[in-house]
Design goal:
Elements lengths: L20 E3 L5 E3 L4 E3 L5 E3 L10 H15 L2 H18 L6 H9 L7 H15 L8 H8 L10 H4 L10 H16 L5 H13 L3 H5 L6 E4 L7 E7 L12 E6 L1 H22 L5 H6 L6 H8 L6 H6 L7 H15 L14 H14 L4 H7 L9 H17 L19 H7 L5 E4 L4 E6 L11 H4 L4 E3 L5 H18 L4 H4 L3 H18 L2
Antiparallel strand pairs: 1-2, 3-4, 5-6, 6-7, 8-9, 9-10
C-alpha cells in the first residue's frame, strides 16, 4: 500500500458514515469523493467535472471510474475521464443520451472517432457492472451498431515527420557526437548525459526508464558469454501488472555503462549527504536511477526504519513528465540544427524509440525481432517500421541534395586563415593531412593524443581548425567517390553507404565558409 501522504493516514467519511478511501491499481490511496485522485506518481486525475452530470447518473459514473482506477492503469483511467469531459464540452449535455452520443460522433472528425470509442467502452463496462439503470437502452442500441476505429498508429514513422518521427541518421549521429563534446566541455551535466544515453541506447518509453532502480544494472555473462553491462528494464503496458512486475534484460555498450555508473555514484553521494550517513548496499540498490530534487529533500523526513519501504515503492521515482523534460533539456543544450528543417532539433522520448525501430528494420529485422527489441507484447504495432524501410533508404540519399543541408550541425570547428593563425591559438599545432589526396587541410586545436581517423573525424571535431585556402574540395571529391564505391560494393546497403554522410556535410559547410571568408 502506498499512501500519497506517506505515513500520515487521514480517513475521510462520506455522509452515510462509510469510509470514502479507495486504493488505485498502483497502490495509491485516494478519496473518491474528492475532485482530485492521485493514482500513481505520474497521474493525478481531475474529476470535478463529474459534479455537473445529473443525479443519480453522476454517482454511477463516479463508481465506474473508481472501478477503472482500482483495476486498470492510471493512464487508461485518465484517458476515459478526458474523453468523458470532452463529451460534455462538445455536446453541452449533462446526461448520457442518444442525442448526446450522436452529436459527439458527428462533431468529431473521423480520425478522432476513437475518442467516442473510449466513452462507449465505459458505457459497456457500466452495463456489465449493472450501473446502467439510469441510461436509456436506446443509447446502447445506437452505439453498439457503430464501427469506430482506433487512433492512427505509426503516422509519424511512416511519414518520417521531421519533428515527431524518427531522427535521420545525421540527426541521430549528431546527438551522440554533440553529447560527448558538450559533456567534455562541462556544458552537459552527468545526469543529463546519462538520461540522454539511456533513451538513445534503449529506445524505451519514458515510464520504463523512470521506473529503473540502481540495482537493475550489472555486468553479466549470462546472455552473451562474456561480461556485458546489462540493465533489467521494467516492462510497460502489462495488463493487470503492478509497478516493476516484469523486468527484461537489455545490454548496453561500455560507453553508456561508464556514464550510467558515474551518474549513480554522484546521485548516491547526494542522497547520502542529505541523510547525513552512508547508505547500506540494499538501500543504494533500491534508489531510482533518476530522482527529482524534491525526493532528496523528502528522504530526509522519513524515519530510518521506514526508509526501505519507501525506496521499494514508486514514490521516490522521478515523474515521467519530469524525466522527459530532463531529456529535452539535454538535447536542447546540444544546439543541433536539423538538416531537414533548418531549425533547432526537436525531441521527445518517442523519437528515440521510433529511430531504434526504423534503423533495425533497415538492417533487415523482422516483425518478431522488432517487437522484442521495442518490448511490444505482439507485432501489430511494429509492422509500420518494416513498411517504412524502402522510403527511409531513398530519403537518406536525398538529404545530400537539399538546400537546408547547409544548416545541419555537422562542422563544429573554427575556420582560420592559415596555419599561422592556428599556431597562434595552439603553438605547434599538428597538421591534418589527407593522404588519399596528398594534401593538408588544417590544424588540430589541441595537443591531446588522438587516434581518430583523420581527416574524416577532424571535420566533425570542435577542435578542428580548417585553413581557409586549403583544398577541401579534394576531400569532398574523395568522400563522394568512396560513397559511390560502397554503394556498388554493398548492393546499396544504406547503413554502410551513409557511414560518412555527416562528414560529407561537414566538408560542404567548410567549403561554404571558405567561400564566404575569401569573398570578404
Amino acid at each position: 500500500m502506498i499512501n500519497v501522504n506517506h505515513y500520515d493516514v487521514n480517513f475521510d467519511f462520506a455522509s452515510d458514515g462509510k469510509v470514502s478511501i479507495s486504493m488505485s491499481h498502483n497502490g495509491f490511496e485516494f478519496n473518491y469523493l474528492s475532485s482530485r485522485w492521485t493514482l500513481n506518481r505520474d497521474v493525478t486525475l481531475s474529476v470535478g467535472f463529474l459534479d455537473s452530470f445529473v443525479q443519480p447518473l453522476q454517482e454511477d459514473i463516479r463508481e465506474v471510474l473508481v472501478y477503472y482506477a482500482e483495476t486498470s492503469s492510471a493512464k487508461h483511467t485518465q484517458n476515459i475521464a478526458i474523453q468523458l469531459k470532452l463529451y460534455q464540452t462538445i455536446t453541452g449535455q449533462n446526461d448520457l443520451t442518444e442525442l448526446g452520443f450522436a452529436s459527439f460522433k458527428n462533431k468529431l472528425p473521423k480520425k478522432e472517432w476513437y475518442k467516442v470509442s473510449v466513452v462507449r467502452g465505459m458505457l459497456r463496462q457500466m452495463r456489465y457492472l449493472k450501473l446502467d439503470k439510469h441510461i436509456d437502452d436506446a443509447v446502447f442500441k445506437l452505439t453498439d451498431q457503430w464501427r469506430l476505429g482506433g487512433n492512427d498508429k505509426g503516422v509519424a514513422v511512416l511519414t518520417l515527420d521531421p519533428e515527431t518521427g524518427p531522427f535521420s541518421d545525421l540527426e541521430f549521429e549528431a546527438i551522440g557526437l554533440h553529447a560527448a563534446h558538450r559533456y567534455a566541455e562541462g556544458k552537459l551535466r552527468v545526469d543529463g548525459y546519462a538520461c540522454l544515453s539511456m533513451f538513445k541506447a534503449s529506445g524505451r518509453r519514458g515510464v520504463q526508464i523512470a521506473s529503473i532502480k540502481c540495482k537493475d544494472f550489472s555486468y553479466s555473462s549470462e546472455y552473451t558469454g562474456s561480461p556485458t553491462y546489462v540493465v533489467l528494464i521494467p516492462k510497460a503496458k502489462v495488463r493487470g501488472g503492478k509497478f516493476r512486475s516484469i523486468l527484461r534484460p537489455y545490454a548496453l555498450v561500455n560507453s553508456v555503462a561508464q556514464v550510467v555508473e558515474l551518474h549513480i555514484k554522484e546521485q548516491t553521494a547526494k542522497v547520502e549527504e542529505a541523510l547525513g550517513r552512508k547508505m547500506t548496499p540494499e538501500e543504494q540498490g533500491e534508489l531510482p536511477l533518476f530522482i527529482d530534487v524534491d525526493t532528496i529533500k523528502e528522504i530526509q523526513s522519513i524515519p530510518q526504519d521506514a526508509l526501505m519501504d519507501y525506496l521499494k515503492s514508486e514514490l521516490p521515482h522521478i515523474k515521467t513528465s519530469n524525466l522527459t523534460n530532463r531529456l529535452n533539456s539535454a538535447v536542447k543544450k546540444l544546439k543541433i540544427i536539423s538538416e531537414r528543417t533548418g531549425e533547432p532539433l526537436k525531441s521527445n522520448s518517442y523519437r528515440f524509440r521510433y529511430t531504434l525501430g526504423t534503423r533495425a528494420a533497415r538492417e533487415g529485422a523482422g516483425t518478431l525481432t522488432l517487437a522484442n527489441l521495442l518490448d511490444h507484447s505482439d507485432t501489430q504495432n511494429v509492422k509500420v517500421y518494416v513498411a517504412n524501410t524502402p522510403e527511409h533508404a531513398v530519403y537518406i540519399a536525398k538529404i545530400m541534395n537539399q538546400p537546408l543541408a547547409r544548416y545541419a550541425s555537422a562542422f563544429e570547428g573554427k575556420l582560420v586563415e592559415d596555419e599561422d593563425e592556428a599556431n597562434s591559438e595552439n603553438a605547434g599545432a599538428a597538421r591534418i593531412p589527407c593522404r588519399e589526396k596528398n594534401c593538408d587541410v588544417g590544424s588540430c586545436g589541441t595537443s591531446s593524443f588522438c587516434q581518430d581517423y583523420a581527416p574524416i573525424a577532424c571535420y566533425l571535431c570542435p577542435k578542428f581548425r580548417p585553413w581557409a585556402n586549403a583544398p577541401h574540395h579534394l576531400i569532398l571529391e574523395w568522400l563522394v567517390e568512396e560513397r559511390e564505391r560502397l554503394k556498388a560494393a554493398t548492393n546499396g546497403d544504406m547503413q554502410i553507404v551513409s557511414t560518412n554522410d555527416r562528414a560529407i556535410l561537414a566538408v560542404c559547410q567548410v567549403i561554404q565558409l571558405c567561400k564566404e571568408h575569401n569573398n570578404g
